[in-house]
Amino acid sequence: MKFSVEKNGWYRISAKYTATGRRNQEGVLLDSECLSNLFLPREKTETDIVTIELAAGEHELTLDHRDGDGVLEQLIVEPCAQPAPLPAPHLALSNPNASQNAKKLMSYLGSVYGKKVITGQHTKDIPMGEIEYIHSVTGDKPALCGFELLGYSPNIQWETSDKPTVEEARNNQNTIPCAIRWAEQEHGIVAYCWHWFSPLGGNDKAFYTEHTDFDCAKAVTPGTPEYEAAVRDIDEIAGHLKAFAEKDIPILWRPLHEAEGGWFWWGAKGAEPCKKLWRLMYDRMVHLHHLNNLIWVWNSLEPDWYPGNDCVDIIGADLYTKPGNPGCCKCDFDMARALPGEGRMIALTECGANPDPDNAIRKGAPWLWTMTWCGGFATGGEWNTPDQLRAVYASPSAVTLSSLPRLW
């Protein structure tokens, strides 16, 4: 859809539509730059697409259908006021007994938020090949390294799962010492997610809904076998995380990620069971196991799924643009700002193509950090070309490992 604006300035782009699907999603490109996702709630007929600064002249908006049955009927472009500045970041951690180093990290994050973007890279195997690849290309390393706990899940079906599942889980075992070395020797920031194999039943990659019939609604109902198994798993993972708590290594902790998509079992039964599971995990890890080094990162942009400010410290979004199109993803940043987070900082907790930090800040999407996913997303050259990586790591708006101050 092509449109013109008469003068430079800020514009609100919205659309009228019809949609009946549960999850109606379009990818959005503006002048070929990926702004990422547009969600079309079925209970509405009009929605904002993005508020953005445009130069006078012709522009083109492209929608890339991803999910559901949404049909756009009208595009509306109108001048608007420049968006209000980001609110002061909320730095008080939800856990009143947060450790000294968790507070130090949160304070540092607040000091760069809106001004710089922290570089991040996910890795899940002991060689940490993505980090070495980035170093070989850029001469630097990410300030933040993301790690994975899937191989520590208690209920992996080793005997009956397919070969890719077993290999992935085996390769992820015993990686906690890698994360400790990253924090203690490289002095980098640590993030963790957990592809949680279903606590009962399932086979193959049983963190996916299609590979298990485990019921999240029963997992938050005391007295059920599902509840007992979920509590067992949470407690076992808490035991592994105590290795970090004992050293006061803070962790950006992102469990139950991408729940609203439904492709993981913890989101398959809807928002309410998932929020209860989040609170169950929070309560046991914080109040029973005293993991005071955790900074809790909620990873969903749909308002109905938000579990509450008393158990969330940072809001995250997982976004995959087109390969080689490192757009600023402003649509999703605007969605995150609309959540009732009261100043919670917003991070790009997974991505394929790495956004340019300068462009993201300029366009009003100053992600706290970006986390490129592992494997070919980082090293394949398609999602992130060597030139793109060098540009990101050389950006004056990027925080890399060499520019990260010593925090502990």
Helix content: 25-40%
| Average pLDDT number | 96
SSE-based structural type: alpha/beta
CATH architecture level-2 label of the largest domain? Alpha-Beta Barrel
Please explain how this structure is put together.
The strands form 3 sheets. The chain has an 8-stranded parallel beta barrel with strand order 8-9-10-11-12-13-14-15. Strands 1-6-3-4 form a 4-stranded antiparallel sheet. Helix 6 crosses helix 7 (271-288). The chain has 2 domains: 2-79, Jelly Rolls, CATH 2.60.120.260; 100-403, Glycosidases (TIM Barrel). Helix content is 28%, strand content 25%. The protein is an alpha/beta fold and 408 residues long. Strand 13 (314-319), helix 8 and strand 14 form a beta-alpha-beta unit. The mean pLDDT is 96.
Which helices and strands appear, and what pairs or packs with what?
Elements: E1 2-5, E2 9-18, E3 25-30, E4 33-39, E5 46-54, E6 57-67, E7 71-79, H1 100-112, E8 117-122, H2 129-138, E9 144-148, H3 163-172, H4 176-184, E10 189-193, H5 216-219, H6 225-245, E11 251-254, H7 271-288, E12 294-298, E13 314-319, H8 330-338, E14 345-351, H9 357-362, E15 369-372, H10 376-379, H11 386-394, E16 398-399
Parallel strand pairs: 8-9, 8-15, 8-16, 9-10, 10-11, 11-12, 12-13, 13-14, 14-15
Antiparallel strand pairs: 1-6, 2-5, 2-7, 3-4, 3-6
Helix pairs in contact: 6-7
